[in-house]
Design a protein that fits this description.
Layout lengths: L14 E2 L1 H8 L3 H11 L5 E2 L5 E4 H15 L4 H4 L7 H11 L3 H14 L2 H12 L4 H21 L5 H20 L7 E11 L6 H12 L2 E3 L3 E4 L1 H8 L5 E6 L9 H12 L6 E5 L15 E4 L2 H5 L3
Parallel strand pairs: 4-5, 4-6, 4-7, 7-8, 8-9
Antiparallel strand pairs: 1-3, 2-3
Helix pairs in contact: 3-5, 3-6, 5-7, 6-7, 6-8, 6-9, 8-9, 9-10, 11-12
Length: about 300
């Protein structure tokens, strides 16, 4: 679902190529060059080999211009707007429009500018007439997928990605907390967890939201959980459904051993199950998995079985 990977925390990226600008804005490099030449909208620096580079301010300006342009403002008119008025116009558009593309553009701006206020105001505008499930499916998932593409092209820095995904996690957690007063079903108890060295938590957090939404008790363990920890939970409850998301761990060379170790762990608890999904599950042969293990190709498929 979101196959993006963390890189080591480096300094925030401050210089961007014209290809970075194209990836982030959706405006073709050729068009950006025309806007530079005809309207002087951007002022790139040049390397010793005459290659354009753009600073963070230029990127922020282009993203603002792109949002105005995509909302019907002609580029010739945008070029005449005083520069200090452009962010205000952008905020007005974001506040008036709550459809998917506007929200994603605004979240992208919030990410690049480290602007928590813009993120929250955009979220508040789209949650008014949507459920959280709709916001996650229609806005957050496409936005996260776009972050994945930006990672592949090195167009954003680790700090940008960590900033915005932390805000999304906060929204999942707060919406989950609002559900805990629901009547708890007794037939299943879920234990969402991530294996050791697995830190990609958004998918699991959202699954936890769906579990609690349906009235089930959830014992959320979170990231990088040692297998022995799971045995501690088994001492207190029967018929546990362990739910995990294998994005980068366990890796291909370790996943078979992990499943064998899990089988040993659960052998004395015959009513417990393991539900897993994520990129690494493609390395498993479903025909050889023990009966207590179920794999799912997507969050949606797993939710259908709740």
């Amino acid at each position: 679902m979101f196959n993006y990977f963390y890189k080591s925390m480096n300094n925030v990226k401050k210089l961007f190529s014209i290809r970075d600008l194209e990836n982030l804005s959706g405006i073709k490099a050729h068009t950006i060059r025309i806007w530079e030449k005809r309207y002087e909208l951007l002022s790139p620096e040049r390397t010793s080999t005459n290659i354009r580079t753009y600073n963070l301010e230029s990127l922020q300006k282009l993203l603002n211009i792109t949002l105005l342009y995509n909302n019907g403002h002609k580029i010739s008119k945008i070029a005449k707007i005083p520069e200090e008025n452009i962010p205000l116009m952008v905020r007005e558009i974001v506040s008036k429009n709550s459809i998917k593309n506007h929200a994603i553009s605004a979240f992208k701006l919030a990410m690049i500018n480290f602007d928590q206020t813009l993120f929250i105001s955009t979220y508040n505008s789209i949650i008014v007439d949507r459920t959280f499930r709709e916001v996650f499916k229609d806005v957050f998932i496409p936005f996260l997928n776009e972050i994945g593409l930006l990672w592949q092209t090195d167009s954003i820095s680790p700090a940008h990605e960590h900033f915005v995904t932390s805000l999304i996690k906060q929204k999942i957690v707060s919406n989950t907390e609002n559900l805990h007063q629901l009547t708890v079903k007794k037939d299943k108890i879920f234990v969402p967890f991530l294996p050791e060295n697995e830190i990609h938590e958004i998918g699991l957090l959202y699954l936890n939201y769906e579990i609690v939404l349906r009235g089930y008790k959830s014992i959320y363990l979170g990231q990088t959980v040692p297998l022995d920890t799971l045995k501690d939970v088994m001492q207190y409850f029967d018929k546990l459904y362990f739910v995990s998301y294998f994005t980068v761990a366990p890796s291909q060379d370790k996943i078979e051993k992990y499943m064998n170790d899990f089988s040993d762990l659960i052998k004395d608890f015959p009513d417990s199950k393991l539900w897993i999904l994520g990129y690494q599950t493609r390395h498993l042969d479903s025909s050889k998995l023990p009966e207590f293990v179920s794999t799912f190709s997507s969050i949606e498929k797993l939710i259908e079985n709740l």
